[in-house]
Design a protein that fits this description.
The protein has helices at about 5-20, 35-40, 55-65, 75-80, 85-90, 115-125, 140-145; strands spanning about 25, 45-50, 70-75, 95-100. With about 150 residues, it is of the alpha/beta class.
């Protein structure tokens, strides 16, 4: 993991912490393991590992009644599994953040139609979404989406 990507992960962790988040729900997977490692090292947010992504999303939705719920999953299988709860949170106006890891375009070994399809689906099920694909603009995009 490069220093820039570590900085992005640490920035996101700090942003969530500064906005009252103390727990993140999820299931570790290939493309989000680096972020999970940063979560463990930060000691700011407690990671709650659930049996599956759907349970993690429901837990984040319930936790959002404390302010802001966060679910963190891997690309494709994990991301698509939380779509229903994400749409439910939108309908209920419950503040839930879904974080999904993703492979680098050269490392991808499976995807849905095209690489950006998952993010396009989230665009329709959320108030806002972003694909962090430029480390230099990541902080600005994180601020925009989470604000």
């Amino acid at each position: 993991m490069s220093n820039l990507s570590q900085n992005v992960g640490n920035y996101l962790i700090q942003w969530l912490y500064d906005h009252g988040v103390r727990h993140i729900f999820g299931v570790p997977g290939d493309f989000v393991l680096g972020f999970y490692e940063q979560l463990m090292q930060s000691n700011k947010l407690k990671f709650i590992n659930t049996c599956d992504e759907l349970g993690a999303a429901f837990a984040a939705d319930a936790y959002a009644f404390n302010g802001l719920g966060v679910v963190c999953v891997t690309y494709c299988v994990g991301g698509l599994k939380v779509i229903n709860v994400t749409a439910q949170a939108l309908a209920e106006k419950t503040p839930v953040v879904a974080i999904s890891g993703a492979p680098g375009i050269k490392r991808i070994h499976f995807f849905i139609i095209r690489f950006g399809t998952q993010q396009k689906i989230f665009e329709h099920m959320t108030i806002d979404s972003v694909l962090i694909d430029n480390l230099r603009t990541a902080a600005k995009n994180i601020d925009r989406v989470l604000s």
